Amino acid sequence: xxxxxxxxxxxxxxxxxxxxxxxxxxxxxxxxxxxxxVTNITASDTSDENWKQNLQEQNEMYxxxxxxxxxxxxxxxxxxxxxxxxxxxxxxxxxxxxxxSIWTYMGYTAEIVSLITLFxxxxxxxxxxxxxxxxxxxxxxxxxxxxxxxxLSKYLATILFALFSLVLLFVVSFLVGSILFGxxxxxxxxxxxxxxxHEVHMVSHILGIFGLKSINLIMMSTFAFMISTIFRNSxxxxxxxxxxxxxxxxxxxxxxxxxxxxxxxxFANTDLxxxxxxxxxxxxxxxxxxxxxxxxxxxxFNALTWFVFTKRDVAA
Length: 316
Prior knowledge:
Layout: H1 2-17, H2 19-42, H3 51-67, H4 73-92, H5 102-109, H6 113-134, H7 137-141, H8 147-181, E1 189-193, E2 196-200, H9 202-231, H10 234-256, H11 274-277, H12 287-311
Antiparallel strand pairs: 1-2
């Protein structure tokens, strides 16, 4: 066990010794600050007394969409849920969250997790492939440590970088949000699920968003790590992972509009926040189903990585 910790420490030293790593972390902090400044400048003050009238106007629009025969089922599903949430607000006198609030801002910064995913893909893809590029893989393999432990240490170091970046983004976002917008108040977040509207504490909602978005972060990092290990090419791993990050999600959304089997695609399950919002990609999908699918993909990715690295003649 002591060997694995030393190996992880060694991999962490390799990661944080690079100037590029600190540049990526600096970009992450700057991005969070920029989002805060832009939100503070451009967001309109929605904490006015006419919010009830605005919601009533929105409800009329949603009712018209539900009555229209030309609207796709997905659009009608969204309209039905938004209508229910608006009616719940009106009935219980719960005003929408101010667009100039720390909660709205942290909801925006949660989207920056995709930037962390990009950075982690770069780190993970180069972790194994760079050893072959520079010929240092031979120095690793002559150590009295199994190949499996060497591979595990590289993978865990990559995931630790991802988690550190995620915590850094959350802390910076909270600090910047507190400075720019102050406290967030006690307004609850409303979510439609299981056929009804439910109140969720805003802190729990934000923590849930960051936590669930880390699932896609880990899955894409694992995928890039697998491609890097199998093909010994960091460029291919980075390019393919980035392409699937964007094209894969969009293609899955289009397929989900027509085919139920789209729910078995990886990208239909990586965004677990859909179960927080209630806007499930494919009708009938559940949190349990998505978790099972993610576990299957996770096991497949790591099994292929381990098999190739431990069985192939990597010393060549």
